[in-house]
Amino acid sequence: MAKRVLVTGASGLLGRECLKAFADDPEWTSLGLAFSRSSGGLKKVNLTDPAETAAAVREFKPSVILHSAAERRPDVVEKDPEKTNKINVESTENLCQLASELGAYVIFISTDYVFDGTKPPYKPGDPTCPLNKYGQSKADGEKVVLKANPDNIVFRVPVLYGEVERLDESAVTILFSKVKDTSKPAEMNHCERRYPTFCADLGRAIKVLANSRAKDPTLTGEFHWSGDEMLTKYDMAVIMAELFGLPTSHIVADTKPAVGVPRPFDCHLDCGRMDALGVVKRTPFREGIKSCLEKYFP
Ligand SMILES: NC(=O)c1ccc[n+]([C@@H]2O[C@H](COP(=O)([O-])OP(=O)(O)OC[C@H]3O[C@@H](n4cnc5c(N)ncnc54)[C@H](OP(=O)(O)O)[C@@H]3O)[C@@H](O)[C@H]2O)c1
User: Fold this and answer.
1) From ligand 1's centre to the CA of 8, what distance in Å?
2) Ligand 1 pocket, 76 CB below 6 A?
3) Which atom of ligand 1 is nearest the CA belonging to 15?
4) Is residue 249 within 6 Å of ligand 1 at its C-beta?
5) How many angstroms separate the alpha carbon of residue 15 from the centre of ligand 1?
6) Could you tell me if residue 261 is inside a domain?
7) pLDDT computed for residue 140 by the predictor
8) Which residues form the signal peptide (predicted)?
């Protein structure tokens, strides 16, 4: 079967790196979809419009749909779960139906927030138990994906960082705004454990999975992938300051659980299934984050 990948959310933090990984490979033909930021060859499709989506998918005829588009900001989801449901669940169901019609399969990008963070490390197949509406919407999306076709793939990842269009595009790079402003104290959470993951590594990892699946059709179901350094937001902020020769005295560790929408304590993902495919490259946090932040300093 021809290797044709349709990447949704290709204007987003992760989608753009996934598209890059496939577009750089002559074995693959790729098309990226976007919505409000459709430019530079990305096709504009509102995924919450089933007819518009169907026309785009049927025209491209993918062998794989890499579904990265989502509403992933927990605070936004909490305020408007119905709107979130349309993109995180209903559009997913529609894409799965279209994939089945074309004999393709779906890789659904999901999150470690489907777990409650009390019993890490989490293996593929472990029961989900989301603490907030965002995690619930992604868990609902996962169910739809595996019910539509057990040969589909659910691919869970933790907090992401990468090349950003603005510092606030990632929950990691946004910390740098406070780190740079040494004139006032910067309170940083030093409670919840995170495993920041570099999107460029992830794009390559997902391509390895798609290539492995082309050879081995039993590679279905749930997969996990994650950076391997456990860091709190405070740890990340201190590293950023050190990398750019900034003082750290204004960075204040807040050891209480984060306020607002409940977030899991430690969702460390067991990545053994991906590691077994030979996906081992994990860019050290210091190296990855430096490359992302350089253009924002001074
Ligand atoms: N970021 C993280 O830390 C993180 C952590 C764990 C899991 N994830 C998961 O990883 C995936 C990618 O996240 P991300 O950080 O790359 O997200 P993002 O940067 O917020 O990008 C979201 C993408 O979804 C697209 N989109 C939203 N509504 C759409 C609609 N109605 N029609 C078509 N496209 C629509 C956006 O397109 P436009 O911008 O062009 O409108 C954008 O490309 C998501 O499934 C998320 O749940 C992310």
Assistant:
1) 8
2) no
3) 16
4) no
5) 7
6) no
7) 98
8) none
Structural domain tally of the chain?
A: 1
CATH number at residue 154: 3.40.50.720
Ligand 1 within 6 A of 48 CB? Answer: yes
CA 10 / ligand 1 centre spacing (Å)? 8
pLDDT tens by residue, 240-259: 999 999 999 999 999 999 99
- For residue 128, which phi and psi values (nearest 5 degrees)? -90, 155
**Among 272, 181, 175, CA closest to 231:** 175
Q: Is the pLDDT of residue 161 over 80?
A: yes
283 confidence band (pLDDT: 50, 70, 90): very high
pLDDT in tens, 93-103: 999 999 999 99
Q: Are strands 160-161 and 197-198 parallel, antiparallel or unpaired?
A: parallel
Look at residue 255 and tell me if it is in a domain: no
User: Cα–chain-centroid distance for residue 170?
Assistant: 10
Residues listed for the chain: 298
User: How far, in Å, is the centroid of ligand 1 from the Cα of 92?
Assistant: 13
Residue 203 lies in a domain: yes
Structural contact between residues 7 and 64, judged by C-beta atoms closer than 8 angstroms: no
Distances 147 to 93, 220, 234, 277, 280 between C-alpha atoms, Å? 9, 12, 40, 25, 30
Q: Which domain holds residue 221?
A: 4-163+196-227+270-279
What are the distances in angstroms from CA 202 to CA 1, 38, 95, 225, 266?
Answer: 24, 22, 22, 8, 20
**Residue 15 neighbours by CB under 8 Å, 6+ apart:** 7, 8, 9, 32, 34, 66, 68, 69
User: In the 8-state DSSP scheme, what is residue 296?
Assistant: G
